[in-house]
């Protein structure tokens, strides 16, 4: 194995090898002290001791250069303006990193890095005019409020969600179930290009990998993992969005569903989710209430996002008081801060959202906040 192979290159190789799935990858990295270079240089007998690794997988790992052309992959990525975000990179989506089974890396096209709370909007590919309108309107309004809209760029609901975010001048990330060099569905080529310029397109799959029954559920797991909540607008009872909702529940994310007509199959999944305990939402205010965010005042809404320049962002007296509650690594809930500062809960929630948009605090999967 070439001595020049670095950590990132080794991850890229592992991510692209056939017969080495995500579960096996996690076990291999655990067995080799999370050193991908050591995995690729590993003794065959030690590899075979890892649960799930058979003769075929061990042969692929020990002779990886015969199964994955690293130099060609890197050249194609550079030519297409793509990068590979390792799980340990600062620019890797933070909430996705917290999940039980995050990808070891993501192919990423676009200059945008996730810098704000994410909400997924998903649904059927055969959306009704009602469903498509709701998805677009929710995405547009949430994007204006400072959320990043995440979806899978599929036909129907996903497309409407991305378009709504872009039309509002907001940020959106499309997670694909294929390699980033493949636009699927092909009629979304223009949308793909626009998202790559104004947001980002992401995938855990190597270039050239086509979508299949295995890749779509894996894509859905990433969509759910990136976000604080998923909103299912329309879905059949056995639709792909139900898989995304299941992943969201397993990952401790909020699950919301939009009710529809009882005589339409495209509403059956949403109604099932609501029966099973998902929050019924009929407006963006319902979403904000469930996420414990308050609509910012006009003055707060006009505040720019932190630009990453030198110096700290300007803070109001209340923002500084709220930020002081996190001294010493304290983990706080909105109602706890409200009680401590003797300020209304709605006022504290709006302030927390402003601090999150300024990247001074972040909201954890358990609903508590922590300083960055």
Characterise the protein shown here:
The protein is of the alpha/beta class and 372 residues long. About 4% of the residues have low confidence. Strands 1-2-6-5-4-3-7-8-9 form a nine-stranded mixed sheet, with helices on both faces.
Question: Helix-strand pattern, N to C?
Answer: HHHHHHEHEEHEHEHEHEHEHEHHHHHEE
- Total helical segments: 18
Strand order of the largest sheet: 1-2-6-5-4-3-7-8-9
Rg is 22 Å
Shape label: globular
Return residue spans where pLDDT drops below 50 for at least 5 consecutive residues.
298-312
Main sheet summary: 9 strands, mixed
What helical percentage do the residues reach?
A: 40-55%
Named CATH topology of the largest domain? Rossmann fold
User: What is the beta-strand fraction?
Assistant: 5-15%
* Alpha-carbon distance between the two ends: 39 Å
Q: What class, by secondary structure content?
A: alpha/beta
- Summarize model confidence as the mean pLDDT: 89
Number of E strands: 11
Based on the structure given, which CATH architecture of the largest domain is correct?
3-Layer(aba) Sandwich
- CATH first level of the largest domain: which class? Alpha Beta
Number of domains: 3
Helix/strand layout:
Layout (H helix, E strand, L loop, with lengths): L6 H10 L5 H10 L4 H5 L3 H5 L6 H8 L7 H11 L1 E5 L7 H4 L7 E5 L8 E5 L6 H16 L3 E4 L5 H11 L3 E5 L13 H10 L1 E4 L11 H12 L2 E4 L7 H11 L3 E4 L10 H8 L3 E2 L3 H8 L6 H4 L15 H8 L9 H8 L3 H13 L3 E3 L5 E3 L1
Parallel strand pairs: 3-4, 3-7, 4-5, 5-6, 7-8, 8-9
Antiparallel strand pairs: 1-2, 2-6, 10-11
